[in-house]
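In this supplementary section we document a worked example of the pipeline. Step one takes a protein sequence of length 96 as its only input; no multiple sequence alignment statistics are reported here. Step two produces a three-dimensional model, which step three serialises into structure tokens for compact storage. The input and output of this example are shown verbatim.
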Amino acid sequence: MKVTQQDLDTVASLSRLRISDEERPEVLSQLDKFLTYVDNLQQVDTSNVEPTTYALPMKNVFRADEVKPSLDRELALSNAPLKEDGYFKVPRVLEE
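The serialised model returned by step three reads:
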């Protein structure tokens, strides 16, 4: 596929890119190569390929939610600089 200067200007405008005069030949060449590659991919026969949602098999990576013993409240609060009624006491963050 041959890309023209007008095509490059259109793509640059739509993507809000500034392409300098020095960069134009290289960018034009790269865009042409990319579109040629995509055109080649469109010619591949995929009629016997089943559609997939993911390229790799998906599995649940989360562990089961199980109740387990946790840290004792008094032990957790033992090194707290301030505590009140079994909770950490911290300075107020929001003002009224």
